[in-house]
Every structure is written in C-alpha cells, then in structure tokens.
Amino acid sequence: MDAKQNVVFNVLLYLTPDKSIMKYDIIIIGSGLGGLECGAILSKEGYNVCVLEKNDNFGGCFQSYQRRGHTLDTGIHYVGSLDDGQVLNQYFRYLGIIDRLKLQKLDEQAFDRIIYHGKEYHFAMGHERFVDTLAQQFPAERNNLRQYVQQLKNVGNLISIDNLKSGIIATEGMKYFCTSAAGLIESSISTPDLQNVLAGSALLYGGIHDVSTFYAHAMINNSYIESAYRFVDGTIQVSQSLIDVIRANGGTVLNNSEVTRIIASSNKAEGVIVNGERIDADSIISNMHPRRTLELLDKCHCIKNAYITRINSLNNTYGIFSIYLIIKPKTIRYNNFNYYLHGNNSVWYDKLNYPGKTTNCMISMQAHSRNSSWAEVINILTPMYISELSEWADTRPENRGERYKLFKEAKTQQVMEFIRQHGIDFGNNIEQIYTTTPLSYRDYTATTEGSAYGIIKDYKCPQVGFVSTRTKLGNLYLTGQNLNVHGALGVTLTAMLTCADFLGQEYIAKKVGNA
User: Fold this and answer.
1) Shortest CA distance to 452 belongs to which of 331, 328, 319, 338?
2) How far apart are alpha carbons 441 and 60 in whole angstroms?
3) How far is Cα 214 from Cα 485, in angstroms, rounded to an integer?
4) Checking DSSP bridges between strand 64-67 and strand 338-342, what pairing results, if any?
5) Fewer CB under 10 Å: which end of the chain, C or N?
6) What span, in angstroms and rounded, lies between the C-alpha atoms of 22 and 18?
7) DSSP code at position 316
8) Global pTM value
9) 102-156 pLDDT, tens digit each
10) What single-letter DSSP state applies at residue 359?
C-alpha cells in the first residue's frame, strides 16, 4: 500500500461515530517548518496527525516556487550546525531526512563576507579559525575575539547533543536573553569597526541595536560558525522530505486547506473548519502567529482578554524586501558565500533615521546541481517595514495594482544602486527580476505584519515577548518562530518543546540525542 493509500485508509479509521466528521489525534495548522516537524515527530511516535496548509505550496519559509524554469527559495538561504555530530544534523537524523537532503557546504574560509566602510571582512567556519581570520585585520583584538567566541559557544552549548542524551532539550539561558547583543559586543570589543563587523549579519535575526538579545545573536552566529550549508535545488526538499515522513507514518498532509475557525467549547478545542467542513481532533497545534491563532479561535472563558491583549500588543520584527535576479546562462560565476553590505556608521537597521532607505542588504546565490560553476539565481534581501506598504494593506496577491508595481520597481532600483556603490554590478547579465515585499510574507505565510522573524524579544524585558507552547485552553498548543528563536535551528528547537508537551521532555530528548 503506497503513502497516498495509507492516508485514505487512515482517515476512514478516524471517522466519528456518525461517519460524517473526520477526526484525528492531532490537527496541525500550517505547513511551515515547525508544523511539519511537529507532524513528523508525533507521527513517528504513534499519533494520527493531519497537517493543514492554506496555500497550494507547502513549507512556509521553506517553500520554493518556479519562475522561468528556475527554483526560487522563499525565506531560507543557508543553515548551520549540519555537520555530523552537530545539533541540527542530529535533529534531522532523528526525523529521518538528513540523508535525503542535497547540501553544499559554504566556503570554510569565508562563508560570510561583511563589507563595511569599503573594506571586506571574512567570517570563517570553526571557532579558532573565525578568531584567527578576523585577528589578521584586528591583531590587537585577538584575546577579545576569543572571549567573544567563547560567549557564542556558551549559548550554543545550551542545546547540545549531550544535553539531549541526558534528557534535556535546552538548559536555561535567561541571562543571555537579558543581555543586549550590541551591548555585549561593544563591551567585549574595543575597536568600533570590529564591533560593527561582528554585528554585520544582524539582518539574519532582524537585529535592532537597542533591542536584540545576545541569545538570538549567539545562537544563530554560533550555528553558522560550526558549519554553514546551502540547500542544492531549493529548500522545498526539506518540506517534502518531512511530508514524506508524515505520510509514511500514516499521517495526512493537505494543501489548499485554509482553517477559517478553531472550534472551541468552554474548556476545550474540538476541531477546525476547513473549506466549510468540520474536522475534529483531540488536540490542535497552531504553527501560525499567535495573534492569528487567537483571531480564528472561538471565544472561551479559558482564554482571558488580558492574554489576548498581551499577544496583540507584542511588536514584530521588520520584514524583508526580496529581489530575485534570474541570471543569463554562464555570465556570472557562482559564489559559495554570502555578502552583507553596509552603507552607514552602524550596521544595525534603524527605521527612524533611515525610513524607506536602503542602508544594508544581503546577497546570496542559490545552489543548483545542474550548474555548479555558474550563478542562475541571485537573492538580494534588505529590511522593510510593512508600514511602507500601507497604501496596499487591504489588497491581495496579484491584485495590488499598477502603483504597487511601480513602487517595487523603484525600490529595486534603489537597492541595485546601493550594491553598485559597493562595487558589485551585475550589469547586463540579468535576464529577469522578480520581487516580493512583506505583504507577500503576510499573505502567503500568515505572518503578522509580514514580519520576517516573528515576535521581537527585547533584552530589557524578554519575558514579555515569550509565548508558551501551551495555551490556557488545555488541548490547544503553539509552535513556530514566534515562541523562542527563529530560523531552522530555533524553529526545530521550538517544535521539540511543543512535542514534549505530548511525549515528555526526557523521553523525546533522549530519542533524538541517541538517534
């Protein structure tokens, strides 16, 4: 019996007594990485799960789409900690997908290149090599760099494989949530230029100078220093591999299935409405933004107005304006690294002083198996708040009008001029340009305000931004990038914490750690 037949058979087994309503152990709303990982983990552990995706494409920020025969990735451009014996590799090994992924390790000598004040600085893989490489340009800072890197490692060790083997998903790191990323860098490093270089990839986590936590900065940077990889032929392979795991375990994954209501009684979530039909479950996990989850949830006395008000008041990180350059065949060599370009005295994005301006961007080339020596698709990303798009706030994709198209064209020219000022010019080698804005993130991934990285965690009061995997409605759970830390590693960690509510932390941690 193939996977599809398994799914049909499984659904029939779980019809309610009146045979009119399907029922599952767990419904998961949203097929982003967190939703699919929860589905894969829980289906491996014997739960009958159903993952519901409102769009045609699965994957959330891990989805890919086609343009002119090219695969364009949505939101993930590289991932870390994927070498054997590293933590994301271990998670993917337990999930049963690591050997199915086509990966390419980035340049170990310089996986990220920071251009600041006209000079180029390299981030190298391996903690010692990272220090040695930057110390060549800042020799007086060698000892300070060692101490800084040790702080990165301290945060990374909070989610080590040794912890997993002992039954712990993550050890407590509140002091790092209460520490400013910019503040720790500036107190550790005496040279202002090096301070900015070390924060040069802050775009990865929506970095804001007076807000961002050292926990987020360290977790992400440490992961890439351990090892940095691109996915060859698109990030959708991660999503598809997880879907295959879920279906092989008898689970169901459905696209074009938008949840428009979460049905709840006074003390229990009972099911969802999808395309006008009811589906019931013993438990529900939402991979959507918590604000959107509460909007769909029936009123119930368990969810207090104070909780709803708190969730609605939380600020979100900025969004991203993304440019996809389709390159003419064999005209630009493939770069096995990323560029981060900065155009003022601070690498931290500041919408107050530079509203609507391009002050930094990332340039990343997608890896393709059919053409490893030449670039096919180049991604350029720059911060953008959805407030810049207020004129089109009430519009939907493909129906935003000519003024929106002209706005995107003008923004594209601004960004292209910015990178030319930094000595990078793709000239006449561009075949086609596609762009997306935070409105695209909002509409395709149900992300509040088109935020690229979810709810802001402010080091001055981090508890305010924390959202538990459990809600006061006993069988409604949350997962995804808004709860802990975003990115592939952060979302995977959060999916584990959500699943631990069902399986027990010690049990599932040891299963993963010993996979």
Assistant:
1) 319
2) 9
3) 11
4) unpaired
5) N
6) 10
7) B
8) 0.93
9) 999 999 999 999 999 999 999 999 999 999 999 999 999 999 999 999 999 999 9
10) -
